[in-house]
Design a protein that fits this description.
Helix content is 87%, strand content 0%. It is built from 2 helices and no strands. Keywords: Membrane, Transmembrane, Transmembrane helix.
């Protein structure tokens, strides 16, 4: 599990660093159709990673909320 979180945090750091770089230098999508398509695929991947991070946060929050109830059930 530790390895999963280490990989997840590394991927997250790389993704958001790249995203911040694009934002900082105000990089716009290319106008060439092939490059535009590649840029769109990259943007789709970034969106997928962001959605995965939101889902992971929700899952962790749900597990944290369920933990006391689970301990009470196990104690009975």
């Amino acid at each position: 599990m530790h390895l999963f979180w280490e990989a997840f945090s590394s991927i997250t750091l790389i993704t958001f660093t790249f995203y911040a770089f694009l934002r900082r230098f105000n990089i716009r999508p290319p106008t060439d159709p092939e490059l535009l398509q590649r840029f769109q695929r990259l943007q789709d991947r970034v969106n997928a990673v962001e959605q995965a991070m939101v889902q992971a946060r929700r899952s962790v929050a749900a597990l944290a909320a369920d933990r006391p109830a689970r301990y009470l059930r196990e104690a009975e």
